Amino acid sequence: MDAIILQTLNGLDKGSAYALIALGLTLIFGTLGVVNFAHGALFMIGAFCAVFLQRILSLSTITIDETQKDFLGNPLKVETPYVHNWFGPETGSLIIDWSVPLAIFFAIPVMIAVGFIMERGLIKHFYKRPHADQILVTFGLAIVLQEIIKYFYGANPIPTPAPDALKGAADFGALFGFDPNVIIYPYWRLIYFCFAALIIGAVFAFLQFTTFGMVVRAGMADRETVGLLGIDIDKRFTIMFGIAAAVAGLAGVMYTPINPPNYHMGMDFLVLSFVVVVVGGMGSLPGAVAAGFLLGILESFASTTWATTTIPGINQIIIYLVAIIILLTRPRGLMGKKGVMED
User: Fold this and answer.
1) Is residue 17 within 8 Å of residue 269, measured between CB atoms?
2) Which of 11, 108, 118, 292 is the most exposed place for a label (fewest CB within 10 A)?
3) Per-domain boundaries in the chain
4) Contact by Cβ (8 Å): 115, 246
5) Does the pLDDT value for residue 341 go beyond 60?
6) In a 3-state reduction of DSSP, which class is residue 198?
7) Residue 126 near residue 137, CB atoms below 8 Å
């Protein structure tokens, strides 16, 4: 039982990343009808927003400290971060330590701006083009973006730690009545799952309970009729593209302590996220979220020693096997609707 709980927890944090990226993908496809293969790059850009902010906060000034000497008797050069000078040593150190959570506030406007530029500058010209054209142009854009990141940050992963207060692990098993130290799980992974649940809930609440969201849902169902009512639905869809970009970016920001950012992380998650979208059902937001968590948990269980010993390599193919089985039995996915991408 303890192994089941632990693997379920592992699956939930990985499924959280899948669900957030798939949610953004489905928002874009459901509103604009665009198959956006650059969405994984938005996840990557969000992660590097955290890296960028950490480096900015760590910028230092070099001073000569006459009270300290090196082994030759020369005064030592001391690096003091600017935030220490501005806010004091204690507050400055705290700001640097909490750079990843602070990156959330930095990433939101950056990702919305990136989404607007991407939609207005490129993707709007492909609304009425075949899906194959959309895939080619957005995939090309993703490659360009990842090469830009590689040029500025290099090819190696960049460690971006969580705050010191959240680096430990919780005795999760004690909550279920197990012996102490049986199920130990990192705090940050639990925080990531809770964060993902909050973002997903906020997106659904926004679409369900706000006037803006209701108009967007109406436009997703019948774009022409909403336009005839005098509503600028294109403008609202552009805003939704920005929101979808922000969702992907926030998923990337909070994932950095779990998986150090690198230039190809967007592509790594993109393929799996498209599988999630297809399994959940093209255009179905609940389906994307449900499939994300389902496949994350299945992948976690397939990565256990017992599974990989019994069927070598099963952890690499389990998601695709499940996708094949589901699509053979339910061609539209778990919650897909009739007519979506069927013409």
Assistant:
1) yes
2) 108
3) 2-329
4) yes
5) no
6) helix
7) yes
DSSP 90-125: HHHHHHHHTHHHHHHHHHHHHHHHHHHHHHHHTGGG
Best CA proximity match to 53, nearest among 112, 3, 95, 116:
95
Placement of tokens 């990702």 in the chain: 111
Report the Cα–Cα distance between both ends of the chain, in Å, rounded. Answer: 47
pLDDT at 309: 84
CA atoms within 13 A on the CB side of 119: 25
- Residue 268 makes CB contacts below 8 A (sequence gap 6+) with 40
Task: Find the helix or strand (DSSP H, E) in which 66 lies.
Answer: strand 60-69
The H or E element spanning position 132 is helix 131-153
Distance CA 36, CA 38 (A): 5
Share of the chain above pLDDT 90, in %: 23
Residue 340 reports pLDDT greater than 80: no
Q: Give the separation between CA 2 and CA 182, rounded to whole angstroms.
A: 7
Give me the DSSP letters along 296-328. Answer: HHHHHHHTSHHHHHHSTTHHHHHHHHHHHHHHH
How many whole angstroms from its chain centre is CA 199?
11
Kind and range of the H or E run holding 28: helix 2-32
- The whole-model pTM stands at 0.87
Give the number of C-alpha atoms closer than 13 A to the C-alpha of residue 303, restricted to the C-beta side: 14
Half-sphere exposure of 283 (CA within 13 A, CB side): 16
**Topology given in CATH for the domain delimited by 2-329:** ABC transporter involved in vitamin B12 uptake, BtuC (1.10.3470)
Spell out the alpha helix ranges (H) of 223-313. Answer: 223-228, 233-255, 265-280, 285-302, 305-310
65 backbone φψ class: left, alpha, beta (φ>0; ψ -120 to 50)? beta
Residue 169 sits at φ, ψ, to 5 deg, of -130, 150
Give the separation between CA 83 and CA 182, rounded to whole angstroms: 41
Q: What is the predicted pLDDT for the residue at 66?
A: 67
The rounded distance, in Å, linking the Cα atoms of 240 and 245 is 8
Angle between helices 131-153 and 265-280 (to 10 degrees): 150
